[in-house]
């Protein structure tokens, strides 16, 4: 049996996991939840994941895991035929982990701080404070990419899948200008050629459909 992944397609973290699965050739059984109907807060789902977050993974032996970063590391460690996406070398892996934590605590967190009031509280458009926060994130990433093709080195890792999914979402709300961030813009262009990028593109289209009408 294939592992089961509970998802909402527009989610950046979901898309990162889907890109990982594609990269390692792993088939997942996808179960899409309707959050507006509260399907992520049913007693059955809360028993499985009390944090009621998506994505949530249920492996074929009943093992349950949530948080996209943890899921990606688990899938590569358990199913990939090589460690290239999550290297076993301690120092190389530590840098990948640092980038994953940066995505979680800075990139994706800033994105949600900008979009949550728009999606759930009726706020209209992105204000100057939001724009400044976005540019701070972009500046960090531009620095990370100095002398590197990918976010933690010259090879693609699971950290790239997190950054790619988060930053392509960010780009919808606050445009990434190539003149200001040439390395970042080039990075996202290279990402489009990755095997499995289609998994990000499909969900990104759903994300755009949600967010674009809020940008007046």
Largest sheet: 4 strands, mixed
Oligomeric grouping of the chains: single chain
Strand content: 5-15%
Largest sheet: spatial strand order: 2-1-3-4
Q: Rg, please?
A: 17 Å
Helicity range: 55-70%
SS content category: alpha+beta
Low-confidence stretches: none
Q: Order of helices and strands, N to C?
A: EHEHEEHHHHHH
Distance between the termini: 46 Å
* Overall pLDDT score: 96
* Count of strand segments: 4
| Molecular shape | globular
Number of helices: 8
Subunit structure: Homodimer.
Domain GST C-terminal: 89-214
Family: Belongs to the GST superfamily.
InterPro entries: Glutathione-S-Trfase_C-like (IPR010987), Glutathione-S-Trfase_C_sf (IPR036282), Glutathione_S-Trfase (IPR040079), Glutathione_S-Trfase_N (IPR004045), GST_C (IPR004046), Thioredoxin-like_sf (IPR036249)
Summarize the structure.
With 216 residues, the chain is α+β, with helices and mostly antiparallel strands. It has helices at 12-23, 43-48, 68-79, 90-120, 128-144, 158-173, 182-191, 197-211; strands spanning 4-7, 29-32, 56-58, 64-66.
